[in-house]
Amino acid sequence: MMTWQDIERELEQRKLPGLLTLADGRRVEDREDMLRRRQEIKEILCREFAGYSPAFPVTTEGTVCNRDENAYGGKAVREKIILSFRTPFNGFSFAFELFVPRAGTAQSGKVPVFVYLGFTQTPADGPGEEIIDNGFALAHISYQEVAPDKNDGFANGLGTFCSRNPYDSWGKLGMWAYGAGRVADYLCTRPDVDSGRMAVMGHSRLGKAALWCGALDERFSLTVSNNSGGGGAALFRGKTGERVANLAKEGSAHWFCGNFVNYANREEELPFDQHFLLALTAPRHLYVASASLDEWADPRSEFLACAAASGAFELWGVPGLILEEQAGTTMPEHPLHQGHIGYHMRQGTHHLGREDWKHIFEYRRLHGV
Ligand code: GCU
Known about the structure:
The protein is of the alpha/beta class. It is 33% helix and 21% strand. The chain has helices at 4-14, 31-50, 102-108, 125-133, 143-146, 172-187, 205-216, 244-247, 274-279, 299-315, 354-367; strands at residues 59-71, 76-86, 91-101, 111-118, 137-142, 193-203, 222-226, 285-291, 341-346. Strand 4 (111-118), helix 4 and strand 5 (137-142) form a beta-alpha-beta unit. Bound molecules: alpha-D-glucopyranuronic acid. Alpha-D-glucopyranuronic acid binds at residues 204-205, 229-230, 242, 252, 296.
């Protein structure tokens, strides 16, 4: 049987850095300490993992450049929106697509939304329509519109937005996350979108970016990562499959800040592990989805990170992961949906499928997030 005792024993063997120990060595005891710890964790992850994103204020504006009243056979309104944001010195713009269910707008006025970082230009028909059928709006960001996914010396897309250093300036995960945050700026101005129920979501490398976005931007009521693995929801210590050394290679090193790649083959020296990242979404809601045969991502390490992050949620006064008795299992056979951390493991390989979406819809409905 899977019990907290077994899980804690296994976590001890991973020798994780203390999530709930302040830099001065004291244990976090209350919300005030937790606020301080949150700031410390953020600093560590900015410096050593994803890099600092620009903190200066921007003015965001969205312009609808194309509108289809009859998307998905008349069930949704689709708008192509040019999003621009600027400071007195610089600016940037990219396009994204917004789908709002017509039924939802007529009945309730405001609908909850998925801010989805996607690999494709436009959402695939199947999931797009199901999102609408389930009463959600969808803001689909084609991630390379924000910054191309290649080692281009940060010379394109958001890479040109501010000056950078090779140590702790943002990498591409930070840029994609920042793009999702600017879409959220715009959605907050829409009368048909519920800005209190915005989820940020992504699959695989974009699951990593979604976690970073939800960690930093507290307007998102829910953060969802699907099969995000190394640099996402999976603990690095004790991880199988992809390791820091793999991520540090050409092809993915540009996702992170420069300092991160120095931890290749030195995972035990990382001043954090991924439960730090997950804990930043507390006390809001977090959903982590794994796949049983996704060995590169390592579902066990994703699940354990959720368990390891739970303590932070509890210190905020909300439950993290709630285990249900699942006799004879070492991994949950049924989705764990009761706590502020939701988790499921689908049978199968690396993929974002109908079953994943179904569980995520259920979780959002159950918690009203
Ligand atoms: C590679 C990479 C992973 C990443 C995945 C993806 O497999 O090693 O870290 O999650 O690509 O984004 O598809």
